[in-house]
Amino acid sequence: MGSLNLQRNTKFKQGFFYPRNLDKFVSKDNKAVYRSGLELDYFRILDKNPNVVKWGSEEVIVPYFFDNKWHKYYVDLFVVFKFGDKLKKYFIELKPYSQTIEPKPSKRKKPMSVLYEAHQWAKNQAKWKAAHSYAEKNGWEFHILTEKDLENRK
After folding, report:
1. Going by fewer Cβ within 10 Å, which terminus of the chain is more open, N or C?
2. Mean pLDDT estimate for the chain
3. Residue positions annotated with a catalytic role
4. Ramachandran quadrant class, 31 (left: phi over 0; alpha: psi -120 to 50; beta: rest)
5. What are 40-58's pLDDT values in tens digits?
């Protein structure tokens, strides 16, 4: 593992994003870790968008219960948008569309793959339920965005 839990030899695009508009970016060290190409694309969108007042990556930690113990869920993003004279606050999770739908067994999948996908699905459901509740209690909204949502925003 590299710094900030970046994994080596992964199939996902990973690295650091250095925003140009530091006045609206919230971070201790002026950089955001991206763990996928989807995250990098959205970071670029946020950095350029004049309606974004403030944003940060993995700054919000939500406790959630799964597999009989408590865990910490680092929400991908928090974003404050300005719409006219109103501010809207969001917690955003970025996921490939395929990970936002319940997995289905198939003859082509190995049994271990089916078990892994089912476990990840259940884990994500626990995270997202906790994030939704946490957001609601704090006056925010929780949304899951996929590559399909970002196609029109680039």
Report:
1. N
2. 91
3. 39, 76, 95
4. beta
5. 999 999 999 999 999 999 9
The predicted structure's pLDDT at residue 147: 94
Tally helices (H) and strands (E) across the chain. 3, 8
Instruction: Using alpha carbons, select from 107, 91, 72, 93 the residue that is nearest to residue 141.
Output: 91
Domains annotated for the chain, with CATH where assigned, are 3-150 (3.40.1350.10)
Is the Cβ–Cβ distance between 64 and 130 less than 8 Å?
A: yes
- Per the CB < 8 A criterion, the answer to whether 16 and 34 are in contact is yes
pTM of the model: 0.86
Backbone angles phi, psi at 101, to 5 degrees: -120, 150
* pLDDT of 111 higher than 80: yes
3-class DSSP assignment, residue 119? helix
Question: How far lies 85's CA from each of 26, 51, 65, 140, 142, in Å?
Answer: 22, 11, 38, 17, 21
Look up residue 55 and give its two tokens. Answer: 């944003």
Q: What integer pLDDT is reported at residue 3 of this predicted model?
A: 45
Report CA-CA distances (Å) from 9 to 1, 14, 38, 113. 10, 10, 18, 20
Q: Tell me which residue of 52, 45, 131 sits closest to 88, measured CA to CA.
A: 52
